[in-house]
Amino acid sequence: MLPNVDLLFEHVLINYRWLFAICFLMPLSLGFDVFNHTRNWIVFKLSSAPKFHEKKIRDVQTQVKKWKESGADRQMCTARPGWQTMSFRQPRYKSSMFKVNVNLVDVLEVNVGEQYVRVEPMVTMGQLTATLGPLGWTIPVLPEIDDLTVGGLVMGTGIETSSHKHGLFQHICRAFEVVLSDGSIVRCTKENDPDLFYSIPWSHGTLGFLLSVDIQIVPALKYVKLEYEPVKSLKEACEVFRRQTLKKEDNQFVEGLMFSKERGVIMTGNMVSEADEDLVNRIGRWYKPWFFKHVESKFDGGPRTEYIPLRDYYHRHTRSLFWELQDIIPFGNNPIFRLLAGWMMPPKVSLLKLTQTAATKKLYEENHIIQDMLVPIEHLEDSILKFHQSVQVYPLWLCPFKLTAEPGLVNSRTSDDRMYVDIGVYGVPKVKGFKPVESTRDIEEFVRKVNGYQMLYADTYTTRMEFRKMFDHTLYDKVRDRLQCKIAFPEVYDKVKKTARL
């Protein structure tokens, strides 16, 4: 009887994933959010996090020292289960490693005088905006998905539509507190240890365990005045996007959505304190259309303007996980569904991963692509054509960012800052004969040729040599040698390559 139950359960997960998501994952996700929000609010109001932080980091330090005392015969990693991360893959390597529990989930301090917030690595973007917003502050680069963590955005990377002004998430960080492989705790900045400071971003926990981060904060205003400009050819899209990105004044936010190779909408925004009430759009409310569908509706007609509450703007893609949820709950943007069940959206990515079967994983791998490729802005048109030729997935997400000449795994490869674009590709390829390995490797080769980069949460099919060509290991290798990391931690490549993930 039990095998039949298991088969039925797997059949539902594969063929009626929307039903499972609505009946189980969405209520469970809502419960997690309510619990975490309440718990985080109480901890912050009681100001108890700083006191417990010291105890928690000593515990991490003790675990690392225990690893050394046990003979250091295995490399280390965090004990955080792979299904809890935002990557759609789960790591294989954790099972053979010495796992260190790093339970660091709190906002520690908001220092208005020196304009920074100190947070532990598992603080999420939703948690951060809920804490800073009522105080009248925000951070210059706030990636839009609620469940993204500070640790993931530092050890991996993070980007937002303000990145053309401020750079990547790493560029708004002032200090990193880390436990090294010898058990020592260090707090590094650009001034006291620039080599370690610049090597930590993109390092995926291969230099030490992150304990806290100091992040720059800036005053927040009530609304974002958002302007939508339809574009009706690829050439026009690239010209408008480039012009708005490089505009020296205004345009705190720039974003593009391409709904086909020749059809898109470019958005520009600025924070404002007042708004025309008739033009206010509270897009964060549960019954509102998914943001990308709302943007698509702006294609017909000329430029339009509306005012969006700041927190709604920051998390505009959360309810639909960009446009990924349309493949899981096809009727999720239906007005009746939004009205009745939209308040539970979205199901958490972590729970979607946890409930995947081998069959659903295989289906996703063969018929789905998630990639963010970072290319110089002068190669934007060629890059969109390349994605169209290789995968034909729309919408495409376009987000400009300033890449600095500061050293590290990712830099401008010049002596000056350089403007890049994140091209986000999420969905089911429409190109005939899509082959995930060959198609992704073809795109990776193109990105390397234009001096671009690949975000490493996604499937990476590069060889070790190709990976080292794409990412500048000069400083990273030097720091790993200095801190004796080779025994303690794997290299980045060994944690992110496709064969290291399920």
UniProtKB/TrEMBL annotation:
InterPro entries: Diminuto-like, FAD-bd_PCMH, FAD-bd_PCMH-like_sf, FAD-bd_PCMH_sub2, Oxid_FAD_bind_N. It is found in: Endoplasmic reticulum membrane; Golgi apparatus membrane; Peroxisome. It catalyses: 5alpha-cholest-8-en-3beta-ol + NADP(+) = zymosterol + NADPH + H(+); lanosterol + NADPH + H(+) = 24,25-dihydrolanosterol + NADP(+). Its EC number is 1.3.1.72. One of its GO terms (cellular component) is peroxisome. Its cofactor is FAD. It is a single-pass membrane protein. One of its GO terms (biological process) is cholesterol metabolic process. GO terms for molecular function: Delta24(24-1) sterol reductase activity; Delta24-sterol reductase activity; FAD binding. It is an enzyme of class 1 (oxidoreductase). Pfam families: FAD_binding_4 (PF01565). Keywords: Cholesterol metabolism, Endoplasmic reticulum, FAD, Flavoprotein, Golgi apparatus, Lipid biosynthesis, Lipid metabolism, Membrane, NADP, Oxidoreductase, Peroxisome, Signal, Steroid metabolism, Sterol metabolism, Transmembrane, Transmembrane helix. Residues 44-220 form the FAD-binding PCMH-type domain. The chain crosses the membrane at residues 16-35. Homodimer. Catalyzes the reduction of the delta-24 double bond of sterol intermediates during cholesterol biosynthesis. In addition to its cholesterol-synthesizing activity, can protect cells from oxidative stress by reducing caspase 3 activity during apoptosis induced by oxidative stress. Also protects against amyloid-beta peptide-induced apoptosis. This is Delta(24)-sterol reductase. It comes from Neodiprion lecontei (Redheaded pine sawfly). The lineage of its organism: Eukaryota, Metazoa, Ecdysozoa, Arthropoda, Hexapoda.
